[in-house]
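Collaborator request log, item 7. Partner lab (contact: R.S.) asked for a structural prediction of DUF998 domain-containing protein to inform their binding assays.
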Amino acid sequence: MATARRLGGDGVQINWTLVAGLAALSLAAAANWDAGTAARQRRGAWRTLTLVYLVLLAELIGDTRFGAVAGIDAALPGVGRHMVQIGLALLMLVAAGGAAIAIVRIGRRSPWFAPAGMAALAMAASFGAEILSVGPVGALLYRPIGPIMLIGWLWLACGAAAVAIAALAVRSVRTR
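Returned to partner:
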């Protein structure tokens, strides 16, 4: 998945892209939990975003996304890989569209929820892009920028946006 750096002579390796993803997802989940605690009227909506980040965190730790297409290929031997990827892409687009509609509806009543939901959707989309990564897209996502691949920097950006938005939401609730 990502470049690992060897530390010391004991053979310990650190995958900085994985560390970036773990940090981004953990902090985003904690920040959204805090926003849900502060915003009592929309607690369930914020807890749902927390759950999204926790599911993505579990996926990052479990590392199942790379085997998804291969597993479907094995289950459907007569169907080509491109057809599987197209089917998954359509399924993801429908799910993303439904999530975006729900986020906008809830966001009408809670001004900070729509941007927070879009940050969560962007984070989920980055995982979807990895599942569907084809040729140049995969090459771009896994291009190292320093010790972290581009996908790790995207995770950090989405996580930072989620934390900032949740902090603003908490502040707006607590200053009323």
